[in-house]
Model the fold of this input.
Amino acid sequence: MTPFAIAGVQMYVNALHSNVDGMIQRLDILMARFPWTQMVLFSELAPFGPLDRFALPPENETIEKFQEAAAKHRVWLIPGSMFLKDPEDGRMYNTSVVINPEGEVIRRYSKMFPFRPYEEGVAAGTEFCIFDVPDVGRFGLSICYDMWFPETTRQLTSQGVEVLLHPVLTGTTDRDAELAIARATAAQFQCYIFDVNGLGAGGVGKSCVVDPTSMVLHQSAGQEDMFPIEVDLSVVRRQREAGMKGLGQVLKSFRDRSTDFSVYDRNSGTDAYLKTLGPLEIPQQGNRAGLQAAVPALRVPDVPGFQDQLAMPGFAQNQPEFAPEPLPNASAGMAVAPAQPVAPAVAIPNPPVKPDTLAGTDETSSG
Done:
């Protein structure tokens, strides 16, 4: 068994002033309540919220405060992320730092997939973040929208990452979709996932911890929460070797694949369809993008009737009509009226449906 205690902190994030002192205070409370915690993870953009007006240079006093706090409590600390500006080209990155128990910044990671087109002014990072905790295992870091692109997790786990740390800022209606992606990612890549969202300007909460079998070990609600979870990395190693519940060995199956995917070659032409999807831009009022695509509507074909024609392939034409089955003891006990002839049923073909019309009404579809 290789146990390691990781705590997520789901906290209220203010967009108009610094949250740094509040983060350090919560870290103090967490370590007083759960002194066995060895790593602490905050949500995306927790220190200053989502406004880029608070962007800082790569080296700043805020990071130094977090370094002091990590050293004070002898914990690994990932204080969410913050906007940092490159002093050379002025580009702004959504960047997270990894601080070890000695208070040293050992890794920096800039979000690879900013939430475009909404985060248009944020530059994309190009380097992955992987680090080892001595005598424990290998950890990786991705930020929010990165997880929607499984290639990011594929790269990390192909290099041995066993725990994926995932700070999030999601205040939108797709949070439930993210939770589904977190569970699927844990199973696909056979790793633990710590997915920490904020509150207020920092998100709608619902942070979660998922184990390599996709089981949710913890699910926060919509209030502040501190959740230390002790993980066992031998579970990851066992599952990757023997399969989830003795079944799928997905990492080894990918390793032994017989196909390389041409879609990753930008010059292959395989992704030609993607080029038809229009520009990456924010939808405006009345937007009908994609609804005018020249694709024929799919319709259930008409089904022929049963009289003098085939109803289905393989059925004989002009099948003889069977005589009515006689009632048993029709005259016993009472007089029975002669049966009235019943007209044979005729199948009515499915009527064609006009495009954009709901079946059975004259209303047009809003979709």
